[in-house]
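Backbone-to-sequence.
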């Protein structure tokens, strides 16, 4: 069911804020994603929290993480996430109340090789029909060096 829901959301919504089907929240929300990414010895950790600064609640949103390097195949993801390709993961946030945050999404991944660095693009691709007049805080491009250090976004 998760895959069908996420796939429908990703196909129907392009991140423009257009209403998607019956029950779309509409209104205006200010989604933001914060967290950190670490890379070491071919292991990649991503910790992400999505927030809604309001003023409207958002029933569901989808955040996409796109990596510059491919990930190793056969890796399981949390129930809220799915693979779009070997370089892209899409995750649903759950309900985001105005002035509220979703549960943390934590990913523990293996890269296909041992890159010395990679980039991660994080962005909202669907927000249940809500407009977001401040998209700068839900779009991040993070350079991650293979030092094991946390790169914060």
């Amino acid at each position: 069911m998760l895959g069908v829901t996420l796939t429908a959301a990703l196909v129907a919504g392009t991140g423009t804020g257009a209403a998607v089907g019956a029950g779309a929240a509409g209104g205006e929300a200010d989604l933001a994603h914060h967290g950190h990414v670490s890379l070491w010895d071919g292991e990649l950790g991503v910790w992400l929290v999505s927030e809604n600064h309001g003023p409207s609640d958002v029933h569901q949103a989808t955040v996409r993480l796109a990596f510059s390097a491919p990930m190793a195949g056969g890796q399981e993801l949390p129930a809220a996430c799915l693979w779009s390709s070997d370089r892209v993961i899409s995750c649903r946030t759950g309900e985001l109340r105005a002035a509220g945050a979703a549960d943390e999404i934590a990913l523990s991944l293996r890269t296909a090789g041992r890159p010395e660095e990679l980039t991660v693009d994080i962005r909202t691709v669907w927000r249940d029909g809500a407009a977001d007049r401040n998209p700068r805080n839900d779009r991040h491009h993070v350079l991650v060096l293979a030092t094991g250090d946390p790169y914060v976004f």
